[in-house]
Amino acid sequence: MGWFEERADLAGTVAVVTGGAGGLGGAIVSDLADNGVRVAVLDIDPAAAGELRSALADRGHEVLIEHGDVRDPAELAALFEAARTRWGRLDTLVNVVGGTFRAPFTETRPKGWDALLRTNLTHVLHACHQAVPLMRAGGRGGSIINITTIEAHRAAPGFAVYAAAKAAVEQFARTLAIEVAPDGIRVNNIAPDFVPTPNLDRIGTGDSAMMDPEGVKVAIPMGRAGRLTDISHCAVFLASQLSAYLTGTTLHPDGGTSASAGWFNWPTEGWANHAPLRVLRESGTFGADGGGRV
Ligand SMILES: NC(=O)c1ccc[n+]([C@@H]2O[C@H](COP(=O)([O-])OP(=O)(O)OC[C@H]3O[C@@H](n4cnc5c(N)ncnc54)[C@H](O)[C@@H]3O)[C@@H](O)[C@H]2O)c1
């Protein structure tokens, strides 16, 4: 056994991952399984769940992949019960399910707010409510990991309720972390920025600048979009004993966008926390006289 395997101590542990057949979730499930974790997944997409099941079985992994809706507390409870019956323990919970649509807040309706809260917040509460007693019963502690977003840490025009729901998850995690700390159960968040996945395709990312090798350098200090493994490696770390003393906090695998907070690396002008005059003029919407005072 190598240094990582010995200190991470993941082999033989059990994880529940909601939304585990998607972009980020699939990478997290795969990396946990490759480190010897037995993973139970609940995902609403039957085709993706089927593909994940056969891909992991082909690699000889012991998994439980269920098709279902995490917003239904009964279906969620059934997954925890299936994992408990099969493996008799729970060490890790990863809450991945989440999603949004783009619309100015004033053009949205209570039905849409409710849908966003159910997709991004309420199931996290239900899952944690199921997980903590199982982790306590095991007496070995545990790790709860929520996939939130950079939008929980800044304004997100067009995504007000999504940002609010994810910020609520972050704050919930802080408090739960303290309540369950005496049991050795840790609660942390991972807040990605831009990682191309089917979810992002559905939302739409405006123009394609973020998919352009030069364009992405303007917004992301490290000069590239996130990769699935940038997120899944954080999840492996948080599930493992390498993070044994880390709780109530958030990892930001975002290439530096959270730290840069509004500063952009413009191709000609370099770092600025506003759009350069050249860009405004070239947009054709800025006054011919240069737009007044600069
Ligand atoms: N991709 C990004 O750039 C990015 C950035 C920040 C935050 N996030 C967050 O990461 C998480 C995962 O996003 P992703 O990009 O991997 O999306 P994705 O669409 O690729 O994956 C989401 C998975 O969840 C499943 N799912 C959706 N609703 C479900 C439900 N009600 N019950 C069970 N399963 C359900 C989907 O079938 C899919 O497999 C989300 O919480 C999202 O808000 C993603």
Automatic annotation (TrEMBL):
- For this chain's UniProt record, which GO biological process terms are given? fatty acid elongation
For the keyword Oxidoreductase, the answer is yes
Keywords assigned by UniProt?
Answer: Oxidoreductase
Which intervals hold domain Ketoreductase? 13-206
Q: Does the keyword Oxidoreductase apply?
A: yes
Instruction: Give the superkingdom in one word.
Output: Bacteria
Pfam families for this protein:
adh_short_C2
Q: A single Gene Ontology molecular function, please?
A: oxidoreductase activity, acting on the CH-OH group of donors, NAD or NADP as acceptor
Q: What protein family is recorded?
A: Belongs to the short-chain dehydrogenases/reductases (SDR) family.
Stated name of the protein: SDR family oxidoreductase
Organism of origin is Nocardia speluncae
Tell me the lineage of the source organism: Bacteria, Bacillati, Actinomycetota, Actinomycetes, Mycobacteriales
